[in-house]
Amino acid sequence: MTVLKDAETGSINDILRKRWIMWLFLVFLHLITNFHRMSFNVVADLLTAEFNLTGVGLGNLAAAYTYTYLLMQIPGGALIDRLGPRKIAFLTGIIMAAGSIIIGFAPSSALVFGGRLMIGFGGSMVLINIFKYQASWFKPYEFATVSGLALLISNSGSLLASTPLSISVDLIGWRGSFILTGIITLFLALICLWLIQDRPGRLYSIQPDCKEQARDHEPTETKDDSLFKVLPDLLKNGRLWILFAINTGIYGGFIVFSGTWGISYLVHIYEFDIREASFFVIPAFIGYMIGAPLYGLISDRLGSRKKPALVSFFLFCLAWGTIAFWPGLLPAVLLYTVSFFIGFGTPGNVLTFSMAREASPPGYTGLVTAMVNMGVFVGMVILQPLFGYILDLGWDGLMRNGARIYTLEAYQTGFLICFLFGLMALVATLVYKENLPEKIN
Fold first, then answer.
1. pLDDT at residue 207 greater than cutoff 60
2. How far apart are CA 412 and CA 328, in angstroms?
């Protein structure tokens, strides 16, 4: 039974309820991408010891996810505009499942790298696919709010990649954990193939008594077989490049702390075990999950994307400035606070996707949000290996259980770079001239 057949006997409210169910399974796929993005924080020292990795080597292994993710943004956005959310959800889920299982069985770091590349390739289109679906199923003034909700739910994958993953690693090992994740991803892909409906137009046309209600929900997206004809004009759009710079400056720092080096910092400097350290990273995920829907809701109600984004990025810079310039070790309470505000200060960047739609012609949500989203992964590609390089420069030769132990000064130098990237995003937001969307009354 398909969603379309179910809808033929339902009311317009039944149909609108189904849009949320379909949306939720697309968001679950993004939850998986967030899990993989953050998972190396828990297994970093285990991989370092097993495969004899340096800081740069681990940084490159973690960043492998972002290499194909970055390369696929523009072609992936165009592909989404052409194929639609249903087919893309199935294909991306299958590829991510295969990559995760490969990591679980990998006998060398090269195959772990290959599995990460596959996960990045599949994951590269998942968030943009959600935006494409939302552009057809939700009103323009709902877009930022719904996008924030998507990130709220999907970032529970980040939480799963902290303490729950460390427990799983204790029970079935890091290999078993990745194999299990791959199997779950495969089932999600199959559900999406069965469930997702790309556009609502046909569903509403079978409800002759609901035409007035349906008109508000008719798809706003168009489908153009020559998408790349518009690409040169989009590349000349200076506002899209500013949004690109904002994402470059913000998200990489969040990943450095919550996805790659935060737990190692806490283990090396505070001498916590991995599970204890993971509790100090959880506030970053909670902050992100609170901030994502909050900034989206405030933005839609204010009719401004720029104002809440400025608040978000100021808090991000304040948190990084604190951890970078604090003399000595941060007290535990302040460490929790800084962790929270690194997370809470990041998701103002979700507003860049609404800004991108408003700064470009209609019908190309996949393409323009992909262009802006590239900045997210440029920041990750630069910062993760750079942070590892800075740690290696400051390494004094100390090792523990086969893994390198780095100094507080080396970590703080890396934190300073994250602060400067955040400052770049804050300045870029200040100079951005926004189109004001419709406000919620």
1. no
2. 10
